[in-house]
């Protein structure tokens, strides 16, 4: 009987810590503004959430109902590679803009929602290695004339 009480208490402590971690990730999300210089030389400012750790990168924009017009998520990886993205539990159609280590566009992919794990969720991978990936509403890149070789910078 004592072991059952210890097991239940341990489980409750685990759930509490998991809840605290969830709150932390929701309310203490790193945010920045980046500026993309498009094909016409125009500067486009985008407010982004930074996904620099594996937990935030795995969660991405899952379970979101909307994304603001000039909002997105910037994935920052330790080294360039052909990182694959999938849209499981993502309900918003997205553009994935892949940047190399010099913050220059190397590929842009339109990604379609994949609502559940039961669906077949396509993996989207760039044609070249990338260190940064910006997810924004689908059509954003075309509307703002963002093409290969455009660049971005992080604002202070």
Question: What does this protein look like?
Answer:
The protein has helices at residues 2-27, 54-59, 140-143; strands spanning 31-37, 43-51, 71-81, 85-86, 94-99, 105-111, 123-124, 130-137, 151-154. The chain has a single domain (30-154), classed as Protein of unknown function DUF192 (Jelly Rolls, Sandwich), CATH 2.60.120.1140. A 7-stranded mixed sheet has the order 6-5-8-3-2-1-9. A two-stranded antiparallel ribbon has the order 4-7. With 156 residues, the chain is of the alpha+beta class. The mean pLDDT is 90. It is elongated, with a radius of gyration of 18 Å.
List the helices and strands and how they pair.
Layout: H1 2-27, E1 31-37, E2 43-51, H2 54-59, E3 71-81, E4 85-86, E5 94-99, E6 105-111, E7 123-124, E8 130-137, H3 140-143, E9 151-154
Parallel strand pairs: 2-3
Antiparallel strand pairs: 1-2, 1-9, 3-8, 4-7, 5-6, 5-8
By secondary-structure content and strand pairing, the structural class works out as alpha+beta
Assign the CATH superfamily: Protein of unknown function DUF192
- From N to C, what is the helix and strand string? HEEHEEEEEEHE
CATH fold label: Jelly Rolls
What best-fitting shape do the alpha-carbon axes yield?
elongated
* Percent in strands: 35-45%
Total separate domains = 1
Secondary structure: number of strands = 9
The span between the termini is: 58 Å
Low-confidence stretches: none
Please name the defining characteristics of this protein.
156 residues, alpha+beta, Jelly Rolls, seven-stranded mixed sheet, two-stranded antiparallel ribbon, elongated
